[in-house]
Amino acid sequence: MTSWVHVDTGLVPGEETTLRLMRQGDAFAITVGNQDLMRDRHCESERALATLVAARLRDRPKARVLIGGLGMGFTLRAALGAFGPEAEIVVAELVPAVVAWARGPLAHLFDGSLDDPRLALHEADVNRLIQSGPAAFDAILLDVDNGPEGMVRGENNRLYDGWGLKRAHYALRPGGILGVWSGRPDRKFKARLARSGFSVEEVRVRSRASGEGPRNVLWLATRTGPAAALPVRADAVPTPAA
Predict the structure, then answer these.
(1) Is-contact 159 126, C-beta < 8 A?
(2) Taking Cα atoms as reference points, which of 56, 51, 55 lies closest to residue 67?
(3) What is the mean pLDDT of the chain?
(4) Which helix (H) or strand (E) holds 185?
(5) How far is CA 142 from the centre of its chain?
(6) What is the pLDDT of residue 197?
(7) In the chain, what is the straight-line distance between the N-terminal and C-terminal CA atoms, in Å?
(8) Contact indicator for 48, 20 with CB cutoff of 8 Å
(9) What pLDDT is stored for residue 144 in this prediction?
(10) Cα 146-150-153 angle, rounded to 5 deg
């Protein structure tokens, strides 16, 4: 077996953390430190994050969907395939190098999806887009970091704490869905979702289409009840001007 070769390094804005794009033959991985963040051979749960949510929102042909994290494009491609031709898919990717890789060494994985007219790609913190207004999205899909505990960037934790979940609830339309990918279960996070006004379904999906690999966790959290009062805290990101 050939060794992994370092292709490129990407800096995480505002952090000392770096991402590394690695290649072994025709296989690719993105790593942080000594840990894999994602591999192109382990992507079934990332696809399921989009397809399972789309199936639950099939009555919304003009769904507006926010994806946090571009990664290797598996959630994006699945969303473009699962949501209708009138849907709008908004992607927030914080690390400029990840966007560059999507148009460069990983372009074959994206297969032209970055040119889909339904796509709006932003090099930005997804937290900023979540704060863009009330009832702005039918679905918010978060594949940021490695789940509810930030591994790449400490500030990612604010997406998953009580404040962040209330902001997501506020940003969703009635009956909208917050989908969260995680490498492992987290009972406290599941309970936090329920306390934040969501009806929660937990799904385990193998990481490989063959049915092999670890079981990743998807939380599909449907917004119930009226919109929560707009949560505010001292370190909130200012809402972008229209």
Answers:
(1) yes
(2) 51
(3) 90
(4) none
(5) 3
(6) 94
(7) 53
(8) no
(9) 86
(10) 110
- Of 126, 223, 233, 127, whose CA–CA distance to 170 is shortest? 223
Q: Which residues contact 113 (CB under 8 A, 6 or more apart)?
A: 73, 76, 77, 80, 119
CA distance 187 to 234: 27
Structure tokens at 25: 């033959």
Q: Are 152 and 19 in contact (CB under 8 A)?
A: yes
Token pair 């799904």: residue:
203
Distances (CA, A) of 71 to 7, 94, 108, 232, 239: 16, 10, 13, 29, 25
Helices (H), the chain: 44-56, 74-82, 96-103, 107-110, 126-130, 162-171, 187-195
- Tokens 């079981």 locate to 215
Query: Which letter does DSSP use for residue 45 in this model?
Result: H
Residue 130 in tokens: 């979540």
Who wins on pLDDT, 210 or 22? Answer: 22
| DSSP notation for 95-139 | -HHHHHHHHTTTHHHHTTGGG-TTEEEE-S-HHHHHTT-TT-EEE
Q: Indicate the residue type of 50.
A: A
Top pLDDT among 118 and 155 is at: 118
